[in-house]
Specification:
The protein is of the alpha+beta class and 447 residues long. It contains 19 helices and 19 strands. Strand 1 and strand 2 form a beta hairpin.
């Protein structure tokens, strides 16, 4: 108790030097450092992190304040949300972005340590839960969640991907605590464990499932959208920072909205920018962040997302990672509403774009859209050497996936893609005459 108290007092004393602190400036002004924590490789936070940083919109918004203060933005990149929360509760990060489960832990830790935080906007979301996926090795005999019973499954406990795993196992009739051997690992460690055979499956968040599938190192076993429960990423800010410097927070949220609009208008360019900054393949970034990607970006805090957040609390409590979390007290949309003005209502009412099939031609700055997966296949079959990437939406969940990694079903003249084998088999079972075919067969039928 005494050590904690001393640590908090020390953090408070250091606050002016480390987070949004002031230093003497010229001409009677001052210099203020605003510290932003982000996750470059968690690419559904890019409008509040990687893309926003590369575009420089936040710095421009701060300069436009013209309040006699010189602002300096310090961007700190982390692999997960946990260290961002630790730094926020120590008073060293002002604004952070992370997934929904880490956001709840952020809320709980902030309250516990007397440094409350607030959810102030949303970055990327999927209303069905498609941002999280369970994958297995390419040659794995496992074909359904039921096959995971007694197996080793890698995930990051306390993450949205862990929440998907827990819920999916429960629906499959498997106790998530005793029915599988859960390995609590960082995404990169889990990917290595899957490759080495020390893990039978990997449940992870964006962009790991798509990356491993694209690299030929994994195949999908379970599409998180089968849960039909929203998952999202958002922006959290320290309450004391928001109260002390509301104009700075509003400037950040205006800049985030600008980055969101840039991504919507220039999705291919944005994917290339994020790829350059992160080292991820642009084709993988586009799978999630493209015009019809798995994620939809919008700063508005939609009621569906708040409702899902409340349902997530039970998962974290069961894992003994948090106690009760007052979600309503954590959510604070005042700043984003003020920042976006009359446009907020429009963004709040907007939904995700309709699912579509897309081809990214080699050397092109734009993608081609097709009305059906069969039309996309016909194009690919005629231009096999000219396709950088091809994407198709799952026939039942709408989750976008790589065409050459999808499970294909022929149903009469129809060619239908699925992310996971179980959903493909479920469709076949309900449609006499339908059958699973190879990608090569699908291409041949469409040509």
């Amino acid at each position: 108790m005494r050590r904690t108290a001393v640590a908090l007092v020390t953090s408070a004393l250091l606050l002016p030097l480390s987070a949004c602190g002031g230093a003497p400036g010229g001409a009677g002004g001052s210099t203020v450092t605003v510290t932003v924590g982000y996750q470059s490789k968690t690419i559904n936070t890019v409008t509040a992190g990687t893309l926003l940083r590369s575009l420089g919109f936040f710095e421009k918004q701060l300069k436009a304040l013209d309040d006699g203060t010189t602002y300096r933005v310090e961007w700190q990149d982390y692999a997960t949300g946990a260290p961002i929360t630790a730094q926020m509760t120590a008073g060293k990060i002002d604004i952070g972005s992370m997934g929904d489960f880490p956001l709840l832990i952020n809320a709980a830790r902030g309250k516990q340590l007397g440094r409350p935080t607030h959810l102030v906007s949303v970055t990327g979301y999927n209303l069905k839960g498609g941002l999280n996926t369970v994958v297995v090795a390419p040659d794995s005999p496992l074909a359904s969640l039921e096959d995971l019973k007694g197996k080793k499954v890698s995930t990051s406990v306390g993450s949205a991907a862990d929440g998907t795993l827990v819920r999916a196992l429960q629906r499959a009739g498997i106790d998530p605590n005793t029915g599988v051997e859960k390995l609590n690992q960082q995404p990169a460690v889990g990917a290595s464990a899957l490759a080495a055979g020390s893990a039978d499956a990997l449940s992870q968040f964006v962009a790991w499932p798509g990356l491993l599938a694209h690299q030929g190192k994994a195949k999908a076993l379970y599409d998180g959208a089968q849960l039909n429960l929203p998952t999202f990423h958002g922006v959290t800010a320290r309450a004391d920072f928001a109260e002390r410097r509301p104009a700075v927070l509003e400037a950040f949220l205006k800049a985030q909205a600008q980055a969101t609009d840039h991504l919507a208008v220039h999705p291919v360019d944005a994917a290339e920018q994020v790829a350059k900054a992160t080292g991820l393949p642009a084709e993988v970034v586009y799978l999630y962040n493209g015009a019809h990607g798995i994620a939809t970006f919008d700063p508005a805090i939609k009621p569906q997302l708040v409702s899902a957040l409340k349902q997530d609390v039970a998962i974290l409590k069961a894992a003994k990672l948090t106690g009760d979390v007052d979600v309503d007290a954590f959510v604070d949309d005042r700043y984003v509403k003020k920042a976006l003005g009359t446009g907020y209502a429009r963004r709040l009412a907007a939904g995700p774009p309709a699912a579509a099939s897309e081809v990214w031609p080699k050397g092109a700055a734009k993608t081609l859209s097709f009305a059906s997966p069969a039309q996309l296949l016909a194009h690919v079959s005629r231009n096999r050497d000219g396709v950088r990437a091809a994407y198709v939406p799952d026939a039942t969940t709408g989750t976008l996936w790589f065409a050459d990694k999808a499970v294909w079903v022929a149903d009469g003249e129809r060619l239908l893609p699925f992310v996971a084998p179980a959903t493909a088999r479920a469709y076949v079972a309900g449609h006499p005459g339908a059958r699973v075919i190879t990608y090569a067969d699908a291409l041949g039928r469409a040509s």
